[in-house]
Design a protein that fits this description.
The structure holds 2 protein chains of 2 kinds. By secondary structure, chain A is of the alpha/beta class. In chain A, about 55% of the residues lie in helices and about 10% in strands. Chain A has 3 domains: about 5-70 and about 200-305, 3-Layer(aba) Sandwich (Rossmann fold); about 90-125 and about 135-190, no CATH class; about 310-520, Glycogen Phosphorylase B (Rossmann fold, 3-Layer(aba) Sandwich).
Amino acid sequence: MPVRRYGIYLLYPPKVPLTSEGLGRLLAAFLRGSSLVDDVHFVIVCPSWLVVPLRELFIAERVPLERVEIHAPQYTPLPLALHSWLIRRRAKRRPAWRTRFKVRVHRAANRQLDGFLRAISHATVGPSAWRMALPLAKCSVMLAALSPLILVVGIGAIVSAKKRRWRRLGSVRAEMASAASSAIDAPKDDPFVLRAYRLMEEAEIERIHEIIDTMTDVRAWYCPTAFWPSFNKIKSPKLICVPDVVVAEFPVAFAELGPRLADNFSLLTSAVRGGQDFITYSDTIKRDTLGARFGIAGHRVTVIPHAPQDLSPWIKGPEASNGNLAGAQHCRALLLDALGRSASPYTASFANPSVKFLFYASQFRPNKNVLTLLRAYEHLLRRQRIGHKLILTGKAKAAPRIAEFIAEHRLEKDVLCVNDLTPQELAAFYKLADLAVNPSLSEGGFPFTFSEALSVGTPVVMSRISVTLEVVTDTALQDMMLFDPYDWRKVAERISWAVDNRNPLLKGQRLLYGQLASRTWADVVNEHIAVLDRIADQQPAGAWQWHARD
Amino acid sequence: MTQPGPTFKLSSHTAARLRELTGQPPARPARRKRIAVILPKAYRGGTLRGSLLLARAIKEGSERAGEDVDVLLAHLDEYQDRDFADLQGLPRRPFAWRKLDAQVARRAMHYSGLDQWQPDRDSYLVPDDGIDNLQGCDLWLIVSDRVPGILLPLRPQIMMVYDYLQRYVPCIPEDESLGYIQSARAAKRVLVTTQWTEHDALQYAGLDPRRVIKMPMLAPDFTKDVLPDPRTDDEAYFLWPTNPAIHKNHEVAVRALQRYYERLGGTLTCCVSGVGSAIIPEGTFPHHFDLANRIKSSTALRAKVHWLGELDDEAYRAKLAGAAFLWHTSRFDNGTYSVIEAACMRVPSLSSDYGPMREIDRQFSLNLSWTPSDDFEAIADQLKTMEVEHIDRRRLLPDTAELSRRCYADHVDAYWRVVRGCL
């Protein structure tokens, strides 16, 4: 049987957490689907630094590795290798001798102090008071013996502190060390490192394109995101996926996130303006974003909606083979595990696995509308005494206004943020939630929240936004499950109703989920293949070479 | 030699889906346009009422035209739910002004598609609603030019300018006044409701004449309110609605009252109501010092002038319904709804004579009685005349149904046409 080969172009930067983010899961779902199509083979071309994370992703997401071919430049670029070496070195480095000495002295002093305090605490006023004498005498003798040393160390410490301060005042070295440290810790926020990265990326792109030029048997290329204008340099037929351009819809909030995003936005606009054919996930993005904003003709854009994300396999492992009860226990264990990783002492030691909660799985981005959800939740908790917790998966540190709201309203013990969930943990949180909520203001396609929750039997309430209305067309169901995301009162009202009417809501949503579930990732892949075939066939003869494989 | 691509057989499902996808997109309900009516300051009284009316008029106008839009009232978070009772179910959203520095502003404009835009000042304002900075709205209609800075032009703006009071009554610092003018210059359209303000918009603010549009004044349709029973236990009185602002002309008005009672033997009591009006006789503000002394030294003024302070709507209407007439004393402004409300309750009005009030009189056929605004003797004479003629003047008031139409219903389409042109 002849096999047609199509290429996937990836250019994610180093350290992108593919396993814990939507973009990784989507790629994995796509490749899992493609593994079911016998006469088409996808090859991935990517930078050298992406090979290991991709393999890890595919293992975590159960993508058959034998069906995925990864091509990348052989060697890691020197700057990246240097950066990795610095990180490793810093992790291994022993503390300086002064630090070690101080730690030892502190420990010894604490031991003596403990002994002294213990003796005092245990003593009584009665005849046994003489028992204090021994530890007191011991301490006094030790202090007397060490007094010259203590004096010398004390004077030395004062002199040393003064010297250090003096040195620091004029020290360019200290500034450079601090800059270097921040460049290692947060390289993306350092303009110099960012510029160096762009140069390194340019060189890596050249190497990638050398590989691509040799792959004449690849009929057409597919780029799953629109941030890489270099994709347009490929001479073969090519197809770019534009999931959304959410920055353009929330310009102020994204502008306030700093200048780094501006680069990415320029890359995106450049990639889209230079693109030929496009795929997107919804008619909304086709018309409102690609059509209205970029002026791209409708015939160049194909809408391929997602297939549902079924999370149930993740909680039906061998541990959960004894039916629902075992499944629930497994989920509760996963929930406590994930909470236990939290940096918050309250969350980390949370011990009730049967906690009732609302769940919103999403990063904290301006379009995600988390503040409105928090306002609604605060009302539900404090005015309606709903009792549930609200569990979010975003990082509050990365969204100061969300962190401020939580702190200002003293919600730290009821709004829990859990991060970096594994697919199993994500499934468990969905399964155990009383209700999933998605207040997002804008998405590229029908939010995964619906299928992720329904696949494990949890109902959902969501925003009444265009991409949702494309899929939820039944007006009775719309009224049941959708709310106006701009009005926190409406969000609260719908959540409150859904918590009280969980079963009717679930019943209504299961019908829709059943319909959606008939679409699989193989269908999605087939539709992509059909578009790739079409654009490949439209190319003038000789523009590419095709080799049939047996 | 190149080899043509193979014939790939699609599954029937995929083929059908692909046909569907590459052809005309399926009918999707087009997103309704959304218009934000923005109150830039925590206005009360006439401007708040005007904003609510404006929001309703746009909504109703779009519905009448079969082009239904969503209208949202955006306001500072300094109100109570009851302040919006007249909004008739339209959504509202609180916001706070947020300052962006020039670089952030430039990025925001870049993201919103205006790549070439460059900042020409240090900072810009955006309405921070904690959701999307009103970016989900297609048009911002700002009610009054009193924006405390320059708005980042992320959305087309229409600005409603009620008056340029500062031209006649120096009540605003010069740089603030310049900021208001620049705000108006940045708007795509500037709406004014009187010829007087239109003239000022061109002559004083120097706006582009093509952008200034004179609109009919919208007024609350008080004819639909249930008329309260007039209070009959009180002695006969006339009602003077006011507030402590300098242009309300209190000094001249109180001198006129003194003459009315002490020289002309006026018999009607004067009831003063309005936000902050109770502090006027205390002389808290410099422009009330002389007036406060005058009241202290006049037995007649202390006995016959009742400072009621702010009344709620119901109490105000009851008081108005029982009044012999309403007295409007301003030196200058964009006019007042109170004379319209009075006419709806069959109460005639005596008003200072200035341009915008003449226009209101014409638009609503109120047959107002006039006084000069700065001649206290003439005003006192007119008060005396109204004491005698107020019953006759009730007959000159317009028909209630006619008044109702002129308040609101006749103008809804005109407002929608202007707004639509900016979408």
